[in-house]
Amino acid sequence: MLTVLMATYNGAQTLPKVLDGYCRLQAPSQAWRLVIIENGSSDGTGALIAQYRERLPLHLLSTPDKGKNAALNLGVEWGLHHCDGDALFIFSDDDATPAPDWLLQWERCATAHADYAVFGGAIEADWALAPPEWLPRLVPVGLTFGLTAGALAEGPVFPGLVWGANMAVRRAVFDAGYRYDTTIGPNGGAYAMGSETELTRRLALAGYPAWFCPHARVAHHIRAHQLTQEYVLDKAWRFGRGKYRQDRPGTFPEWSGVPRWMLTRFALECVGYLRARLLGDADAQFRRRWELAFLRGYFFEARRGRGEARKRVLITSYSGELGGMEMRMAQELRYLRLAGVDGSLALRRFAGIEAWAGRLAHEQIVVAEFDPPAFFEQWSWRRWNLLRARLGAAQRLRAFRADLVHIAWCWTNYGASALWLARYCRLPAVISVHNAFPAAEISDWHRPLLHQAFGAVRGVYAVSRSAMAHFMAIYQPYLPATARVAVIPNCVDTDRFKPGAELRRAARQALQLPPSALVIGVAARLSVQKRPHLLLDLFVLLRQRFPQLYLVLFGSGPLEAGLRRQVDLSGLAPYVVFTGFVPDLEKLLPALDLHVLMSRNEGFGIATIEAMACGVPAVATDVPGSADILRDSGGGLLVPPDDIKAAAALVGELLDQPDRRAAMGRQARKEAVERYSRAVVGRQVLAFYDQLM
């Protein structure tokens, strides 16, 4: 199915020519339809479109809200509910007339390049009047009028050259959650340019390259009033505004929200303009005016601030790997967006961060690099690192233009350097505590710095009561009396993680497990903290009693190679499944009869509640974090952390009682929904942030 989407606002003057062009289209081999989204027109556009219902496979949507991107998102949602299979969504404008073979060419291109999901087509000029001679000579006509270069050959293309008057995107992209950014593009006023290029560049970052199809052609109507210098300079100003919106804070050193190199460029352009005036060079004057208009648009947005009325939160951490804390940090941004707050993540580099950042890019969640000198976390070179923090890292933190800094505290003092920086930059801060860590001595050198750092704190929450108790045992003397304190658990998407007989069968089939097997497993990083070797020892003991028992290890980590060797030497390789990292864990967790987490410590244990949401009874060692979830739970069981025989006896009883496991699974699902669902936790997070900024 080919679905053509077009937004229109007061398009009555151009639509007759455009829709007549659609009536002349040669029919492709597959079905197609035209979806027009009319958003708040006052010139009879809707009635005009209705006249073409008998001549075109036309569907008209209406919304009173102005904004091209909001209208296109509405059309995308409609299309997703009314098409099947690998549909192609083709986007065009209400002033772009297609060539007769337009749909045939799009069909050919999409079929020939099945490994591409984003396509750009040729956009030619349809001049209302012959352009003045100065225009093609001095003006970047492609950027100004949305035209593609005639010499652009078929093949891979820079995503910034895929423009909205003629582009196509496969349905799978929108199924994955991507949408247009509604804060940019035509909105009925003096808008910031770049609506479709923001999307295509974001898609490229997420691994969707673009392909150019020069034979899929439209003619873009250029009106008479657009052939003036005033119009061209206004477009340059809008382009500058859009460029600011698409740039990421902190990419370059800044002053007052503007990259310093652009200020230098502005000064040089001013000098160049004065020189051109002195020489009487009219062409050079106009070129300089264009560059200055672009820069003024950029500075205009910088003064207003990104998203003007939106507050901005920067979430950072002394992170070393991708785990539950990092997942919670991303979820925090999703919650904040519900309250109209913008934000980004700023983390140290670690293995796998690029792939994770790519997955977050489709949600417009930015993962920036930020690694301040560690004068708390590392004892050696602490004085030098403190000096580096004052001289360089503080400027880097300011470049993010945050209104509040959220520091995710993963262990003892891991996060204190960033907290001190927030105070040094006069930025308010909140702390989230993600682990139950042991007591630690504060050195005489660090003590006054901690008093300074905690002066920025407006609130602290921990993911469990145990984590809060451990944190307070160290830091309560430094915490301001006015700071808000709360316990807010981690959450689980109970719409993704859910039980079901068919899900269980599909999961076992995917893991190549016998349908009637008993299966235990764990979703955890294969690291020392999670003690997967202890789970393997438990499995060996249980196999003596349950020869049909299998073990599944969801995850990867530094202990994986050693665990594989241990399994091979024990002769149990046919009964142990190593999956590696699983991005869609909800598809495989229902395969388990029990989820068994043998950690030596936990901050909370997201995998435990994910298993519970899937209706899988949860077993965990009786340690802080896990005990917070399971001590009063009817959906799980705590076992001694260091007595493997006692643990084997308790788990064996569960494996021997299918009716008990089924009842526990139902209760586990109930508790996951009522205590840990995204909606429940989201309300707690937003209540915590209320009035903190």
UniProtKB/TrEMBL annotation:
Q: Which residues form the Glycosyl transferase family domain?
A: 506-670
**Which residues belong to any copy of the Glycosyltransferase 2-like domain?**
3-106
Tell me which residues make up the Glycosyltransferase subfamily 4-like N-terminal domain.
Answer: 323-496
**Pfam families, per the entry:** Glyco_transf_4, Glycos_transf_1, Glycos_transf_2
Task: Name it.
Answer: Glycosyltransferase involved in cell wall biosynthesis
Originating species: Duganella violaceipulchra
